[in-house]
Every structure is written in C-alpha cells, then in structure tokens.
Protein 1
Amino acid sequence: MIDQVKRVVIVGGGSAGWLTAGIIAAEHAAASDQGLEVILVEAPDIKPIGVGEGTWPSMRATLERMGISETEFIGQCDVSFKQGSRFNGWIRGGDAPADHYYHPFTLPTGYPEVNLAVPWQQVRDQVSYAEAVCPQVAVCNGNLAPKTISTPEYAFALNYGYHLNAGKFADFLRRHCTQTLGVTHIKAHVSGVRSADNGDISALLIDQGEPIVGDLFVDCTGLAARLLGEHYGIGYVSKRGVLFNDTALAVQVDYPQPDAPIVSHTLSTAQRAGWVWDIGLPTRRGVGYVYSSAHSTDESAEAAVRAYLAPTIGKDAERVELRKLSFNPGHRREFWHRNCVAVGLSAGFLEPLEATALVLVELSATMIAEQLPSNRQVMDVVAGRFNRRFLYHWERIIDFLKLHYVLSERRDSDYWRDNLDASSVPDTLAEQLLLWRHDYPWRQDTVHAEEMFPSASFAYVLYGMGFSTAPFPHRRRRDQKACARAGELFRQTRADAQKLSGCLPSNRALLKKINAYGLQTI
C-alpha cells in the first residue's frame, strides 16, 4: 500500500511558518474538501525575532499567489516600498559623499540583450555604473515611489520589494491563512516527537491534546531547529570563517516629524567592525548594527549605533534601548531529511546584508508546494533534489555577500583587513573574481535557471565598488556590438530617469493615497 501525503504539519509561526503555510495551502487547495490538509502548530508564548523587515521583489508574486490584496497588506503591515540598497562607506570609508553605490532592483537598460558594463568603462570617471544603466538610482535619490496610485496592485513602473513590520506581517499572514486558505492553527507547546518504525516522524507530542499526526513535517522553529537539528541531529555548517558577523544590536526609532521622507531603499552604512542597516517604515525606522564579536566589543558596537543615530534623533540616541541578537552564520548540512524539511532560520542564517532570509523562505516553500511528493516512496527523490538546489543557493549567497567585503579599499581596522585574507574567500568566489578581471559578468555566469542573483547584481556591486575589467583581446568584436548601442541605451536611461523623477510621487505620498483610496486590482 502506498502511503500518500495528505497532511503537512508546520511547526513554528512567524513569517517563515505562515508564509510556508500560505504558499502550500494556496497551491493545494487546503480550503476545499478534497485539498491537502495543512496544520500549523505554534507555541502561544514565543515571540518571533521580528527584525526581517526587508523583502525582495519576489514577495509581490508570492503574496499575489496567496490571493492577498496588496492594498490590505500595505495598510495592515506598516509597509513601505523598497527599490534596492544603498551602500555608504563601503569603498574607502569616511564621510566622502562619493563613497556610496546602489544595488537597485531594476535590471540595467537593454539587459539581457546588451551588456552595458562594456561601454560604461569608457565613461566610468564621469558617472557611476548604476546611475548610467538604471533610472532607479535617480528615483531612489529623490525618495520616490516605484509606481503611482493609478498603477494596479503588484504592477510597477520600477521593480520593487517591501520594507515591513515583521510582527504585523506574521499576524496578517496568520489571519489570511486561517480565514481564507484553510490552514488549521493549533496553539501548543511541542513536548516531543513520536517516531515511526522506519525512522520518520509519525506525530508531534504536545503539552495538551492528542498527538498531531502528519505525513510531512516542516521545521520553522527558528535557530533551535527542534526537528531537523535536535531530533534528527543534522549538523550545522558554520561559515564564520567567511562571513565574520555574528551579533546585532537592533532598535526602533521614531521620525523627527510625522511627515519626514521615507527612504525608498535599505541604507547599509559600513562601520569599523560591520555595518548599520537603516529601514524606513511609515511610522518608524528600524536600525541595527550587525558586527563581528571577534572584532568589536559590545560596548564599542553600542557606541557606534548611538553615534549613527545622533544626527537624526539627537539626545534620544543616548536613551534608546538596544536589543542584542546573536547568531552563528551558516546553514544545515542538509535541509530535507526523511519526512522533515527545514525552512527559515531552522535551515540557517548568514547575515541581514541583501535581505536573503525571507526570499529563501519563499523559494523553499514554493519548491515544497510545487514538487510536493504524492507519496512517501518518492519523497526521498524530491528531498535529494531539494537539498542539491538549496545547497547551491546557500553557496551562491555566501559568495555574493562576501563580494561586498573583499572589494573594499578600507584598511582602517582588523575587520576589513581580515576580510581580504585569502583563507576567508571561498574558492568559487576567488575563481569568479579572477575571471571578472578579464571578462564582464554576463549570462554565462548563470548556472541554473532559478538563480537568486543574476549577473546584473554582481555587476552592480563590482562596478559600484570600483572594480576594473580588462577584457580579453578576442572579445573586442563582441564588445563592439555592445558599444554600438551604448549611446542609445544610455540616453534612454537618462530620459527614463528624468521622466520618472517628474511623475512619480514620494514614497510617503503614495502610501497615504493607498491607505485612503486603495490600489486598482488587476
């Protein structure tokens, strides 16, 4: 007899648990009588970490897939628009106005038919790479929104993700999942695991009530990894030797005036032993210093946060309460073992740079939903495929994050000097950097169809940080084709930047209109 997969049990709530529940429930019609049964078990007294406030543009498709109104989401989760990241002080350090660059969410003009990194080399001393190839930089400089009130839900003039209140987001998802998508919510403490004869998890033991039986168990219990880590003993692969940051001090601060501009991107400002994030929501800012405990004391880190805040909130910077978070950058050795799969912090965590935590949840839950094994016999095949794909994703993220550090010219602390040590640079990244010295990032760098970072993302960071490429002589013929269209595409970028800067509202103005009138549904 074939053991069919009819019931999925998710352990843990928060953004990871409820996103996973919603994506699976929507895909498999959990609200119908014939649909898959989806159960989420959540301890009633465990608060989510609540600092994952940045998303990728992929979140738009995820929410739409779950049947969520963008208007309701924006109104109920303190949402603002995110159009990329701006990196301050990463190149040389100090307060020089020129020491910044953008990683925008919109791809370069003409991509992927034309690689504008080639002709940009001729004007690199006159204009930054991102500004030359993408109109979004001008829009971000003006704190403008990526669309207008007449643009339908999830549509855009410029690609965007979100900044959001993580606690409100989890509550919003819970309501939608239980009231609309048919997810069963059980509030209980998991006290143990009942194993089947073959080593699978057969049921969860809870403090009150009958054991919760399931066919597939999703571990969303955070850093504790109660199922995959504690029960199955799947080891953790630390990446502290590559990515040094392991501690964060986080705080929420009010705007000096209620109508203060809302920044349209994440601000990432380099410090002596890490970097400060600054995220603007409609009602407050989320600020935090993520740093290496091997390169800074907590006292020095606290002083750095308060010094960062002082110019905008004055004497209040000395009084705000900071929340300390510690983590071990890395990931599980495997993510799907037998009939248990980890999603979110249970699978691992690296650091907040480039906001990869929630997008990994989206990708993981989507693959589970789309390739959900129909029975236990094929589950191991799907698990193997899942493990291979996500090991690749994690390695690719590590390379991309490390890229931000190895290109810096900063030598003002052991932190930045140690980041240049060859032993801390993954071989895969070292190989790519060697190649990029002689050839521009382009389509050939894409190994998988579902890449997290296209070649454009690597180019934004490389050339934003001042990297130089001296192409092979035999590439000249190909490069001449790119240069032939360069003038046209550069002019188009400038024209788009001017047009959008003149017609797009500010981030705050659009959010006010959305809350008052709503966006059009498609």
Note: The chain has a mean pLDDT of 94.
Protein 2
Amino acid sequence: MQQTKVTAYDSTLRDGAQAQGVSFTVEDKLKIVKELDALGIGYIEAGNPGSNPKDLEFFKRVSELQLQNAKIIAFGSTRRIGIKAADDKNLRSLLSANTQAVAIFGKSWDYQVTDILRTTLEENLAMIADTIAYLKQQGKEVVFDAEHFYDGYKANAQYALATLQAAADAGADVLALCDTNGGTFPNEIFEITQKVVAQFGSVQSSGVQIGIHCHNDCDMAVANSVAAVQAGATQVQGTMNGIGERCGNANLVSIIPNLQLKLGLNCIPSENITSLTHVARFVSEVANMPFNDKAPYVGDDAFSHKGGMHIDAVNKNPISYEHINPEQVGNIRHILVSEVAGRGALLNKLQQIEPSLTKDSPDTIRVLEQLKALEHEGYQFEGAESSFDLLVHKLLGKFVPFFSLKQYNVSIFEPSADGLNSSATIHVNVNGRDANATAQGDGPVNALDKAMRKALEQFYPAINEIKLVDYKVRVLDSSQATAAKVRVIIESTDQQQSWTTIGVSTDIIEASWLALKDAVEYKLMYIQSLQKT
C-alpha cells in the first residue's frame, strides 16, 4: 500500500520557545494552539509541565478548549538514573498535564550516554523501557524522541537501534528520529531512515510509526525532513517558521506544502492549506519576531516580480516564473514597481487607477520618468506601494489634497519627564481652515505623529483608527556619516488592512513626516474611494 498520509507534529510552543528572544505567555500559547488546530495540525507539543508553573497553568487551560484536529502533547524526559519511573517527580508532573499523548526524549548516541548522562549503556536502555512502559500503563499515547539518533547511528548503529528496540518493546507508538545537532545530510537521512522503517514499521504493517525531527544547523532541516518522509517516515516534526534554538528547527510552513502540493501526501485537510500564510504570519506576530519576507510559499517576496522580462512573462502566464499558484497557500502575487520593471509592468499598476492608459500614453511615460528620478534620490516603492499609489493619483490629477502643511516644529528635551522627551507643534490647513496642535511624545517622531492626529481628527475622525505597526530607518550612504540621506518606511494598519509608506531626506524627522503624511493620506483616499462606490 502506497503511503498517502503524513502526520504534522508542531513543536513551536516547546522547541520554538527555546529560540533566542522568544517568550510565550499562557495567552500567547492558547492563541497559537487555536490557529494550529484550525490549520489541521495533528499534534501540538506544548511544553514541559515539570519545568515551570506557566506550563502547568497552560495545560490546565488548554484542556478546556474544544479542539477539532490536534492532540496536545506534554513533553518530558526518561526517568532519572537509578530510580523507578513511578518515583520520578518529572514524570508525575508530565502525567499531571492530563494530555492524551506525551513525548519522551532519551539518548540514542552512546557518547551522550557515557559522557553526558554519565551512566552505563544498559541503564540508559532500562531508563527508556521503564519510562515508556510506565506511561503506557497510565493509558498514554507515547512518542519516543530518539535524541541524537543520526549521530548515534553513525557512531554505533547497533546501540542506536537498540534504543529504538527498547522503546518499541515497551509500547512506544512513534519512534521519532532526531537530527539533534542538525549536521546530517539528506542522503544520509534517507538511507538511515529507510533502514529503520524496514526494521520497525512501515505503511504495509501494523508496526510502530517512524517520525522525523530535524534541526537546521546546516540549513537542510526541510530537505532532511522531506527525505525522511520519502524513506517511509509517517510523522514529521517541526515548528512554525522554523523558529527554535541555535539555527532553528525544521520549518513546517515549508514542509507541509512540499509534501502536500508537491508529493501528494496528506498532512492537513486540503481545504485548510490556504490558511498557511495567515498562520505563519500570526505566529510570527505573537512571537514578536520579524516575519521573513523571503520565506518560501508564505513570504511577501515569494511571488513578487520586479524584473521587466519576468513581469511580462508572468502577466502572460504565471507558471513562467511561479512554481505554484500563490492562492493555494493563501498568499498573493506582487508586481513590484521599480525603475527596472519597465513600462509594461508599470502599466499593469497604472491601469488599476486609470484603465484607459496604454503603454505609450504620455502619462505612462511621465510616471515612469518620475519613478526613475525618485528612485535615484533614494525612494524604493517596491516596499512602499501605498506611497506609489498616492504618487500616481497625484501625477494623473486624480488626487484632491485632504490637508496642506504650513509648518511644524519639533523640540527635544532631556532629561525626559515621565518618558516624554519631545514636543511637536504643527500648523495645517484643511479646505481653507487653519488648525494648530501641540503634543508631547516619546521621541520626536512620536510627538509629531500625535500632533498631526490632534490637528486633523476634528476633520477626519477616521485617522484615529490608524495604528503604526512598524518603523524602519535605512541610511542610504554611510560615507556621508550624519549628513547621509535616510529612508524611512512606515507600516500602518486600521485592523482591516495594512499599508506601507515611505519618506526620504537628509533629515530623519522630515523623512518620517513624509512617510507619516502619506500614511494618513492613503487611509483618507481609501475611505473616499469606498464612499464613491
């Protein structure tokens, strides 16, 4: 019988939480569990109840959730050296989580047993067998993580396999082979996994399942995971976005579509894979980590096209430069606006604003020339398409200013008072009416943003919906030192949509003002377009 299903096993809340800079609250973990369950993940390894009170609270609260797809897994280690499993306090904590399934890690590399655990090879086998047998007696489904299995196999294959045998004989449901140091190559993973599958379990028999757990220290965790599945593994472990200790874990966000869309294996319900991009970005946001725009399948750049020849080909048929339809994983195609995109690529954008334009229209040529001039000054509209939309509306005479700036003044004072070290005063004109406002802020940009909102909110209450999501500053020519031009990019949201704007100047305050002004104008222009329709 040909293999058709692979179980997706997520360890974001345990292995992922070991990444530098990541610390999930209980609420964070519950939110992520709901998203992973809705995606269709089979197992969610959520932490070690014996390690901290926070995980104990989490396991209590997660049991109250009505999950549709996932089983929650509590994680722990084999019993301590020289005691009975029933007397091990960490195993008792593991059972207190009241999960249907548990994961236990044990040593499969003889060096780790003798030099790190500092016990005998025989005692390590007994620790594995006793622990799993005890947990099975408690009615648990048990996943055995064979730590350092591939390094152990290469050093002493007989002993590495003996650890698996001890786990299987004790009743383990899954033997997860771990490339813990992340240094094994795909061909080795395939060959060794194939031998394990032949000995312990396969889709043709009722034997124990074989899983794969890879780390990314050689940047091959995804490839290694796929190789293991091709060798017969039926469970694949990883984390969302590949977060984890050192270089991270195998990235389930890439593994799932690779297996499902490329190899035709069922990892999650087929209708759910369109949620993959959303879940990847959600986890990144909750983990407070920058999202990788270059991420395969789900990144903003994954289906972005900038070169003129590429764009022309994609407009004719996307398969010319795209390996899948981005909508299959919930992503979208981006045709980037830049000086190298060419007139044909630019036309695609312009026709969304003015359908009557052609490739040779004077307005098309004028916009292209202006785009090239601004990019020469340091603008980069491929990362700030909302500012480009505003620019085009202005150049085509389709933009009516919502306000004009008369003057702003920013002051910085130290030491700060209650964390506020800046003050901004702004004078604007709205349809012939002057408006002035002053505000204090945590830094000059924050003060200027507050003052602008304060001056405009009486005319445009909707600007209070705008929240700043991200603020980036890039020095364009470091040789100019403090006189260098800077590029400021601001990402804003109103909870319904997000948009990005840009400003460039030798003055960081002015560059910030230009980006802030565009952010407000884009929001107001969007509202105006909805009212017209």
Note: Residues 48 and 104 are 10 Å apart (CA to CA).
Protein 3
Amino acid sequence: MKKLISAAASLAMAASMVSSAVPFVTGAADSSKSFELRTFLDVNGKEVSSTVSKDAITAGDVVVPVGVFLKEDTADCDSLTAQFTVNSKDGDASNTYVSFKKHEAGSDYFKTEQEFKLASSSGKTKTLVGFAGVIENDEEDGDYFTPSVKGQCFAEASSKSAGTNNAYGSFAMTAPSNGKGYKWSGSKSDDYPVFVVDVVFAKGTPAGTYTIDFCDYVPEPDYPDNYSCMVESPAGKMTTKNGKLSLKNLEIKIEGESSGTTASTTAAASTTTTQPTTTAGSTTPSDSEVDEKFVVTPEDVTVAAGETVNVKVYATNGNNRKAGQFVAEVKNENLPIKGATATMKSPKCNAVATKPSYEEINGTWYCNTLDSGEPQEINTDEPVCRYSITIPADAKAGDYEWKLDRFHVVESGVDAIEFDAVLKTGKITVTTGGGSTTASEPESTTTTQDTTTASDTTTTVTDTTTTVADGSTTAQTGDTLYGDTNCDGKVNIADVVVLNKYLNDAKSYDMKAQGKINADCCDAKGGEGLDKNDSEAIIKSIVHLVDISKGCTAADLK
C-alpha cells in the first residue's frame, strides 16, 4: 500500500529548502518580497513596546513578543524559510540574559479569547492567528485558527551553522500541494505574522540596544543559490543576493541609569509572561496489560437515527510514551450500522501541547505531533481524535459496538520505537429510527467486545528485514540498513529527527559515514545525495507505506 502522507511530508521537512517546489499558481508573480521583524501582541492581546524600562528589567524577566511578517503583493509563495538571532554591541545578548520561545500559528497563545474578523472568517480564539489560514468555529472545542501554509518552527539556544552562540529562531514552510494555493488571513499579507517568538530578557539584563537580526547566509556550499532566508515562487528563488528579497531587523532598547522613561510606558512588556506548558495527563492505566501499550477507546454515545453524533476517542498511555505522529482510520464499511458514515469531527488534536491538526488523505488521517523535531508528551485527559458519525434514518434502534480500524503511533522515547495501538470498543446507542424500536435487534454486523490481549487487537506487519521486539528493523553487522541514520541497528522516528537536524544544520552534526549511506535511501547515491526525499521515505517506511529495505525512488513516494 502506497499512499501520499501529507503529515509525513511535514515531519520530513528540513529547516532549509534544498529543492524548488512545483508552482501551484500561474500568471505574473511578485518582483520582490520581504521579511520584517516587528513587536507583536502579548498574551493579553496588548501592544508591546520595543523599549523596556529600567524598573521593568530590575523587577523581573521581561518578554517582548516578536513576529516575523511577510510582505508580498501576490499570494504565490511555494516555500518560505528564514533564520534570525539576537545581538548587542553595548549590552549582553548571550544565553545568560536572552532566550527565545516559539509560538506557531494555530497553537494556544492568548490567555483569554480575542475577537478576530479575518478576510473570510471570524471568531473568538486563544490561538495565534497566522498570515494565511482561517478561523474554524467549533461548538465543542471553541474557535481556533488553522494555518494553510504549514511546516516546522524552531527556537534554540544557538546555531553553529548560522555562526551565532546566542538565541536562534528559524522556520521552514510550504504552501498547500492541492493546487488551490493559499489566501491571506487579513486584507494584506502582513496583517498577521508567519511565526512569533517570545524574546525573553532575564531580570537584570544589562542596559543597551539589542537587535533581532536575520541570519542571511548559504548553509551548504554545494547549493550556493539556497540562502537561509529565502522565498520560492513561480518567479523562482527570491534572496537578498538577487535583490528580490529584503530583510528588516528589529531594535529593542533596554534602558538603564540614564533613562528618563518611566515604568508605565512599558507596562505591557513588564507584565507579559510566557505561555504555560501543557503537561501529560495523570491518567494511570488500570490493566497490567497496558503497561507497555498505547490503548485507544472511543467513548460511549447515544444518538437518534438520522442524526449525527460526535465521539471523542481517548488513550491510556503505558509508560508515558511520547508521540511523533498519529495515524487514525475509520472505514465506513466496517461500522456496525449499515449506511453509517464517519469523518474526523475536528482535525485539531488536543492531546499534545502544540495542538496540531490531522490531515486527511484517501480516508486516513495523519497528525504530525513533533515539536521542533522532537516528539511530545501525550495528555491522556484530552482526546487523541474526535469523529463525527452520521446514522442513517432507517437504522434500527439498539446498542452497537465499534472501534477504530487503525490508530498508529510513531514514538521516540528511550527506545525510539513505533507501534500500533491496542484498539478497544465503544458503544453507539441508537434510540429511535425507521426500524425496530427495541434494543434487541441490532444489525447482524455488530462487533463483539475486544479481548484485552495485544495479540487480538494489534496488527502485525512482517517486513523483509529482520524485526526486533520493539517493532523496528535491524540489520546484520556491516550491512547497509536503509533508514538507520543514527546507526543503532533500528529504523524509527529517531532516524528522521537526526536526518532533519543534519539537513537543517549539517556543520553542527558529525554524522557517521555509514549513517549517511543508510540515510540516503531514496534514489541512493552512496550517501552523497541526502535531501528531504530521504527523510520522507524513512517516515513513510515507519508507517508501512513504503518499503525502503532495498532503497526506493522518488516515484515511490507519490
């Protein structure tokens, strides 16, 4: 089975683009574009000053949210990438005093709901509104922003490749591949940011002028036309080198003894706090058999025939495993009620802190749960997914047991393994309808209750390579094991993380020669052709959609 995984494409995205995307629009394109760094709203929805008073920095940490804004006349970007850091000639911009914290479009940001009226949608939401996308109105989960241009964002302590030991931020994003392109959230491209970082100045940060500066350089000498700050569009690559991309930095002033500014002029900055971090739920698996398992169970619901019911799907999480990707599937033909249909109720997944969205391809839903390339903790108090099930009007009344056809988890913890979830049944009670009004005549296809052993509910996949107990593949000593980037004898999500970081910042990662050969699994060139296709091939092999045991080609990924 070979299906396109759009979520896997997101997982496999490196933070620097090394190939041009296929244009998705035609016609005249912008002659130039620009990235600008500006102060942004704080978590209370208030404007933040770029000047921090002496009183504020003496009293405690000060947070200045900074947004990266894209200015363009035409919405025709195929990809965006930029990197930036913090510097100061007369202060101290080192990690001792200055750090970054990222906020991605669509993630929780504001403390209370803020009202937004966008070009084609509106609502009250706590989520960060980005430059391209819409606000989804959800009665159960509240309004939230869904970006249409997606990728990965990073906030780190430094970047050897970018030549900075100070705080460092970056993002890499691509436009939709559906041929429809994207539309700005507002009336202009820069009404809302592409990406936001909190610039956190620690209590006692020395007075001075601090600048948030773009890092504009060539990450890989073999690709001299690929800059760290770059836009790709139908017009081609836009960089500062060819004059088609301009960059505007931001200056932030920390006042000291000579300042005449009072604390009240920067009250918003002094009271701004960083976002709380969502931690995993406290639910403890009650069965001994789930100690090493991830168990997925739909809640019990009641619905009248001819109506639609929303079903939350929860997980018990043995050993507090983390998630790099969720894969969910419900087949209509396997529902116990003839004629019933199911679809994902809300693509948003609240079970991880960044609240990413599922994406649907051919009936299967994929959710990238990585955060800056790393798997996230799973909050078992929140649903891992939600389905809407529509019951036909002629359905017979009764109790119907059902379960998901598939829920697959890619995980990178201590063991860096991937596995299928144990699937248990929930109950749909149909109360009225065109058939019998009693509960004694459910459809003959009603499913029976699962046993509690993993062997009855877990799908086992047999690969041509040798498998070990945790489900990953292994090879004999000295053999090339395609996908094994970190040379630990296994192919799993950890290899994707290592390869993505190498593609993002090759000079900072001394990858083993054998690791390069192993990673070069798509259109292999003996380790000399590493690119995002290799990363995508590995993640697709992990979810059993591509066989890379003997290598593969780019055509196999389509």
Note: The longest helix spans residues 493-504.
